[in-house]
């Protein structure tokens, strides 16, 4: 016997969940980042203590307690923003729309307050990029509140049943694209992953001048292995200088790191 | 206070602080004790220099004009905030509209300059500020908001528990932050220990807290620890060698027997 299908929540309701979930997760992970501190296995995050300490040291406030106090204020704002958004989400899930509205409003005010607090610091410490970032977040918070209040949770939206042929074509096209993309990526991994550590052969481009063009996968291990190999291959030469080609001399995004090794004969 | 007033207040406070601090940044030149800010004078001198106008009078006059417009902006936002405080909605709207219009004109002028000086990133930055101002005005004036939703200061059972949870979370996070700060603060001056990665080549992985003092201590400590070696050359690893956000700065020291 067929059981009647539970009707899906209307579109505005799903978007209201999405907005509250986004801000709850956003603040939860910001708090986690502060609580974990530093880079660990499976978590890098951002070293906020180092960032705050350097900011305050730049204005002459070297004591770590100043950075700690500012971080504690930020942590408090973030904790309350998280709790009010999480509370709004819980109320929304229980169908208590009015309570959800009130909780989300307080969460939004904490969010806007947090970004206002950060933007004061950006002016003070002269970080214009962070000022833009925090102003954008301030505005995103305000805009998401406007959208949230315009979406009526109980608004009736008539679900549109997609025609069966369209669903089959979409599924087949999607499947083919997924398989093709995945195959290309796995093949790229097999052919290129060794570049993550393999040494690069330095190419002579002049008298005692050698060029090393890094692959995009290259990092410090490639650099060290390359120098070790170079020294083995050129025992009669000593590295005198390494010149890193600056960005304006590279072919936009096509060139990764390029450097030149300048040598002199060993006595 | 109802929802509409709260959000209007948040918008007014943000933009008043924004312009007030921008004006303060122009008044306080260069880097001072308790203020870093941005050296707009140097920026303007370089911009005008790139056009061939090397006389500092051009940059100074342009900066004075910009500062005057910013001061005017700040005055308009402050007037809107004071009117808001007095509860005069019509006057607040009037002042705020003037402030928004003046700010948009200022960002339009900045955008013209960005195109003349060829600074596309600043053009994007000013374009974004411009649209945020416009959107702020629309939200402030034209988006209807509930007058009946208020943030009451009388706590309910739920909000009381939320405040308790918030205090506990803040204390827990602050305790972890304090411990992390105590555990890592020595990185502000401790020398970094080098690792020989290739014969005669030492790698130094600098922590995020490190600055020039750490660099000096590192080199001096290395020289003391290795009297048999002579530092031949120091190479700063470019950002491409870093493991994205995990590595702060890599330094390679090339040595030879003393």
Short descriptors:
heterodimer, A: 267 residues, alpha+beta, 2 domains, four-stranded antiparallel beta sheet, 7 helices, 4 strands, B: 258 residues
Helicity of chain B, as a percent range:
55-70%
Give a quick account of the main beta sheet of chain B: strands, pairing sense, barrel closure: 4 strands, antiparallel
Derived from helix and strand composition plus strand pairing, the structural class of chain A reads alpha+beta
Low-confidence stretches of chain B: none
Structure, described:
- The complex is a heterodimer of chains A (267) and B (258).
- Chain A has seven helices and four strands; from the N terminus they run ααααααββαββ.
- Chain A has helices spanning 11-36, 48-58, 64-93, 97-125, 128-150, 164-192, 220-233, and strands at residues 203-206, 209-213, 237-244, 258-265.
- Chain A has a four-stranded antiparallel sheet, with no helix packed on it.
- The mean pLDDT of chain A is 92.
- In chain A, helix 3 (64-93) packs antiparallel against helix 4.
- Chain A has 267 residues and is of the alpha+beta class.
- Chain A folds into two domains: 11-150, no CATH class; 196-265.
- In chain A, a hairpin with a 2-residue loop joins strand 1 (203-206) and strand 2 (209-213).
- With 258 residues, chain B is α+β, with helices and mostly antiparallel strands.
- Chain B folds into three domains: 3-142, no CATH class; 157-186; 189-257, no CATH class.
- Chain B is 62% helix and 10% strand.
- In chain B, a hairpin with a 2-residue loop joins strand 1 (195-198) and strand 2 (201-206).
- The longest helix of chain B has 31 residues, at 56-86.
- The radius of gyration of chain B is 27 Å and the shape is flat.
- The chains are: A alpha+beta (267), B alpha+beta (258).
- Chains A and B meet through helix 1, helix 2, helix 3, helix 4 and helix 5 of A and helix 1, helix 5, helix 6, strand 3 and strand 4 of B.
